[in-house]
Design goal:
Shape: elongated
Low-confidence stretches: 1-29, 55-68, 193-202, 229-242, 267-277
Mean pLDDT: 78
Strand order of the largest sheet: 1-3-4-2-5-6-7
Helix content: 25-40%
Number of strands: 18
Order of helices and strands: EEHEEHEHEHEHEHEEHEHEHEHHEEEEHE
Distance between the termini: 41 Å
Number of domains: 3
CATH topology of the largest domain: Rossmann fold
Length: 466
C-alpha cells in the first residue's frame, strides 16, 4: 500500500532536490539507502518530510500512524539518497505491531545509513535504549537525530543522548528546520563519493623530521638509524643543504626519516643558499607527523632550541626532545640528572613532548627513540569516541570554575572530534570570546591527561552554537 495524501510545499535547504517513489522501490543507481527509525511519535515522519521538502508521510500526534515504508529520493551536493520513513519500533505483540517492527527491521537491513530519531523534550526512555541495542546488531552507520530541539535549554541537555552509545549525534528541529543542513552534511560525509563501503586503507608511514641547530648531530643520528653513511657528516655546520628522506624498517614497522639543514638565527644566516635551506627545514616540520628536536648535551638548551620548539608547538606537531652526545656525560649520575631536569624545565610549555637521552655515535638510546616515535604517533592519530569525549569534557569543566564576564557565563553544549594528526576537537559553547589563553591551556592539559593521550598536542576550536 502506498500512502497518498495532499502535498504541501516546504522550503528545501539550498542545493537539495527530491522526488517521491513510495513503498517497495528498487535501489536507484548510485543512491545511498537511508532508513529513519525510532520509537513512536518522536517525529520520524516530520523529519522525513523536512528532508524531502514535501509532506509525503502522514504526520499526526497519534503514535504509530506510519505503518508501511514511504520512500523518496534526496540529492545533496552531488550525492543521491533513497530515504525510507518507517513505522519505527513499537512495543507490543499483536499482529499489526509485529508487522510494523518487521518492516522496520527490513528497512534497516537494506539501508546503508540509519537515522535514529529521539525526542529531546521527553528525554531518553528505556525503549530508546532497547532500540539502540537492536540497531547495533545490524552493524550499520547510525546518526542519532535528537529532534524537537527548539530552544537553548534543550540544546544544553544533549549530553545525555551520548549515553545511547553512538558517536554521531545531531540536534534538529523537524518543525523549524534547525540542524537539517548539518544532518545533510553528515550524510554526505558518510556517503563519501556515493558509495558506502569499507575501502582498503593505505598503510600510513609516520614521517619524522630530525630538526635542530647546526652541528647537533642530525645527520649522524640518521646514519645511525639507517645503519650506513647515507648523509655527509662533518664538524662544519651547514653540511646538509637539502632535505634527505629515507624510509627505514624497524621490527616490521616502516618510518620515513627526514634529515634537515640546521635552523640558525636569522642574524647568523649569511648565504642565500643557507637561508633557503633553513626555510626548507621549517617547511619540513609543517609536513611531518613527528618533529624530533635534537639538542646538544654539552651545550644545553639554547634560545634557538626554544624557538624551534615553539614553532613545532604552533604547528600542532608531535615532538620528541632528544638530548644527543649523551656518551659525553654518561656515567656522571649527578650531571645526567641535572641535564634532564633542566631540559624539562626549559621545555615546560611543551609538556606533551617526551625527553630522551641518546648518542648518535654509540647508538645508545636508539631503541627508546623508536619506541617513543611509536607511542607519540599512536596518540597523535587517535580517534576518540564522541560519547567518551563529552563525558570527559563535562568532568573537566565541572572541576574548574567556568569563565564569566559580567552576567555572561561560559556554557559548553557538546564537543566532537573532527580530525586526527593532531586530534582536533570542536566544542560548541555559548560565548567563545570568554575562553582566554590560560583557560584553553588548562583544558588541553586536562583533556590530554583524562583521554589518555599525554604525548599528543590537541587542537581545540570553540564555536558559538547558533
Amino acid at each position: 500500500m502506498i500512502l497518498r495524501c495532499k502535498i504541501y510545499p516546504v522550503n528545501l535547504p539550498r542545493g537539495v532536490s527530491s522526488s517521491y517513489f513510495g513503498r517497495g522501490v528498487g535501489s536507484m543507481k548510485n543512491s545511498i539507502r537511508v532508513a529513519i527509525v525510532g520509537r513512536p511519535n518522536v517525529g520520524k515522519s516530520s523529519l522525513f518530510n523536512k528532508l524531502l521538502g514535501e509532506r509525503k508521510a502522514i504526520v499526526h500526534d497519534l503514535p504509530g500512524v506510519t505503518r508501511d515504508r514511504v520512500t523518496g529520493e534526496l540529492k545533496w551536493e552531488g550525492a543521491k539518497f533513497l530515504i525510507s520513513d518507517t513505522g519505527g519500533y513499537v512495543p507490543g505483540d499483536d499482529p499489526i505491531t509485529k508487522g510494523v517492527n518487521q518492516q522496520t527491521s527490513g528497512a534497516i537491513e537494506e539501508a546503508d545509513i540509519v537515522l535514529f530519531v529521539v525526542d529531546s523534550k521527553e528525554g531518553l526512555l528505556p525503549f530508546d535504549f532497547e532500540i539502540a541495542n537492536t540497531l547495533r546488531k545490524f552493524q550499520k552507520d547510525v546518526i542519532v537525530c535528537v529532534n524537537k530541539v527548539d530552544n537553548e535549554r534543550l540544546e544544553s541537555m544533549l549530553y545525555e543522548f551520548y549515553s545511547l552509545g553512538y558517536d554521531k549525534l545531531v540536534a534538529v528541529s523537524a518543525l523549524h528546520g534547525t540542524g537539517i543542513g548539518t544532518l545533510l552534511d553528515m550524510l554526505k560525509a558518510l556517503a563519501g563519493n556515493g558509495e558506502v563501503h569499507v575501502q582498503e586503507v593505505e598503510k600510513i608511514v609516520p614521517k619524522v623530521s630530525i630538526v635542530g641547530r647546526p652541528n647537533v648531530g642530525k645527520s649522524s643520528l640518521l646514519n645511525r638509524i639507517v645503519g650506513s653513511k647515507r648523509v655527509i657528516v662533518s664538524e662544519l655546520p651547514g653540511t646538509t643543504r637539502d632535505l634527505i628522506d629515507i624510509k627505514v624498517e624497524y621490527f616490521k614497522k616502516e618510518y620515513i626519516f627526514v634529515d634537515t639543514p640546521g635552523i640558525r638565527k636569522k642574524s647568523k644566516i649569511e648565504e642565500d643558499l643557507e637561508r633557503i635551506s633553513s626555510l626548507k627545514a621549517i617547511d619540513s616540520i609543517k609536513k611531518s607527523d613527528v618533529a624530533l628536536l635534537l639538542i646538544d648535551s654539552t651545550i644545553g638548551v639554547t634560545e634557538q632550541d626554544l624557538k624551534i620548539a615553539g614553532f613545532i608547538d604552533e604547528n600542532y606537531k608531535c615532538a620528541i626532545v632528544a638530548i644527543n652526545k649523551w656518551d659525553m656525560v654518561k656515567g656522571n649520575k649527578a650531571k645526567e640528572k641535572a641535564i634532564l631536569e633542566y631540559t624539562r624545565y626549559k621545555f615546560e610549555f611543551l609538556k606533551y613532548a617526551p625527553i630522551i637521552a641518546l648518542s648518535a655515535k654509540t647508538g645508545f638510546g636508539l631503541k627508546a627513540l623508536i619506541k617513543s616515535i611509536d607511542n607519540v604517533y599512536a596518540e597523535y592519530s587517535t580517534r576518540i569516541e564522541t560519547s567518551r569525549l563529552n563525558k570527559v569534557l563535562g568532568e573537566v569543566v565541572s572541576t574548574h570554575g567556568l569563565a564569566r564576564r559580567g552576567r555572561a557565563i561560559l556554557k559548553f553544549y557538546y564537543a566532537t572530534q573532527v580530525s586526527i594528526c593532531p586530534p582536533t576537537i570542536v566544542a560548541f559553547v555559548n560565548y567563545p570570546e570568554l575562553i582566554k589563553e590560560h583557560y584553553e591551556r588548562f583544558l588541553k592539559n586536562r583533556l590530554r591527561e583524562s583521554l589518555g593521550i599525554p604525548f599528543s598536542p590537541i587542537r581545540l576550536i570553540f564555536r558559538k552554537r547558533s
